[in-house]
Amino acid sequence: MKSSGLPNVSWFRGRLATAWAVVVYLFLYAPLAMILLQSFNSARYGTKWHGFTTQWYRNLPANESVWEACVNSLWLAGSSTLVATALGTALAYGLSRHWFPGSDTVLRLLPLTVFIPDILLGVALLLVVGLLQQVHAVLGPGMTAMLIGHVTFQLPLVALVVRARMATLDPALEEAAMDLGATRWQTFRHVTLPLLQPGIGAAALLAFTLSLDDFIVSFCTTGPGATTLPIWIYASAKRGLSPEVHALSSVLVMAAVALTVALRLVQKKPWFST
What we know:
Elements: H1 9-38, H2 55-59, H3 64-97, H4 103-109, H5 112-115, H6 118-135, H7 143-167, H8 171-179, H9 184-213, H10 216-221, H11 229-238, H12 243-267
Helix pairs in contact: 1-12, 3-7, 3-9, 3-11, 7-9, 8-9
């Protein structure tokens, strides 16, 4: 059979898809590579290369403000995630398994809170905190106000994710457990909750990530001694991008990469599926 002389269409599509994937990955990860490169730049300010150094990494352990910001960020993200996960799971279960006056309105308004711009939520929380401080000095800017603010935007996300998981569960499993003599609490503890664990875990990870990354809500509700990592990086950038910021960012990126690799190894999943 004679060749038609036309290029192989599947070969061309494969090369085009590969080239497009390379462009997308460069667009996503080239800025991170630049930060990693600048973290080894001996120049104190600016991006012009002055030589290789590891001084900025050696300076990080001695920087008390960085450690304080790290501790504040981890405490805030962990505490708000625990509170939001517990409340969001209870809300999702109640909306899925029970009807109460106003439940339909809650279901309609719940996704709305996800689309509210962060700046509006931050300003609203700032006004509420200022009002409470004027009325009775109960609450002022600081870690407590930041905790409430983070739970505010985490809770709807947790409830939506867990409720999506609830929609996939068969109510007959709970009915069978109760028919066999289990109480409502025993049914929830031994049947519903184990089935909800994947959804609860995903919701908690999402809430923790958003809290750790949040800047606007934290900035609007922060107070003395309540500096988080995003706020510290923003304050450092206003004074001029220091290589210590690049070093800290590189450490965070490497930590995320190491965690991803560790999860892959634990799950024993292949990196690429065929």
